[in-house]
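Notes from hallway chat w/ T.B., transcribed later so I don't forget. T.B. wanted the structure written out for a chain they're using in a teaching module, and asked if we could keep both sequence and structure tokens in one place. Agreed to drop them here.
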Amino acid sequence: MRAFSIIAVLMLLSSNAQAEAGPPAATFNMSFMDSTTGEPLENLSLTLFFEGRESGLNSGRTGQGGTVVLALAYENISFRPQLDDDGTPLIDYPGISLPAKIRDGKTFTIFLKPAGAIRGRLLTESGKPLSGFAVRSKCIFEGTKQTSTDETGTFEFKNVPVGDCMVSTVYEGKFRSVLINVTSGRYTRGDIKIEPRGLDYYELGRAGAAFLFLALLAFFLFSFINLRKELRDKNKGEDDEIVVVDLSDKTAQELWQPRERVDVTKRMGDIMQTLPERQSKIVQLLIDNKGLLVSAELWHVLGMAKATMSRDLNSLESKKIVDTVHVGRNRKVRLTNWFLFGDANTPQ
């Protein structure tokens, strides 16, 4: 039965003297796993690249469970493992540099990220290549890479992680991009073709969003202005339908003086029962205060809003129960002769 783990003895000493003086080789295990799937990397060619050496050392193939047994005459090393499937044109797992402290019988579990490459061309609508343009790639689990197109409009990104990548450029101030899916150990095409100038869906979307925002802003502004106008009109109701009386006139002064007392008759009680609750409270407060008050006293005592008080006073005036006269920013309110005596001509 074929063994799945292969022992590779790597005696990397610079001279025989160093070999005699150096530490004995330590045998240890390395287990390789795919970082994206967690699966063991079996039956792949392993090459180790040591710090300070340009060329790699072929160390056999991974066995069952992705394991390899190695023997090194170093205690502290830094190396980069590289795994490759012989059936693909590119290195499948380029790996990264790893520090290690070698000890006999120790097992290292190393997770490697699969990688591929992107190759494409930047072309106009007519197929003309665009040279010297910056092209960027942005892939999952990796930052942004940048390169430039050559004279044929070709660009290339190597050691790109497997998965979705966006390749983009900026042409005449407009962002152009293409989304591609990179596969392990192979080139993936990522051509970018510049569409003709005109309708740009990206910019159209931005313009549409801006228009919607401005429309909503105008709507809320218009609603706010109308609401303020309505509130102002309501508050102005206190100054509407006001009877202006010259209180310097002696007769007018006598008319707008408080009475000695107000006795509630059966007729007055019957009228008050027909009034809404707020208006009935206004009339009762006037009765308790000798038939005359200032509007500010009414809304302060009764706890009514000015606009509500103004509407109720206007209603009571239309029913001939009260009269009002404007004095400064307030209104003097009095009970009418009709309400008190049943006759508008009855003397005060």
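Follow-up for T.B.: Helices lie at 16-21, 201-235, 250-255, 266-273, 277-288, 295-302, 306-318, 337-341. Might be a good example for the class.
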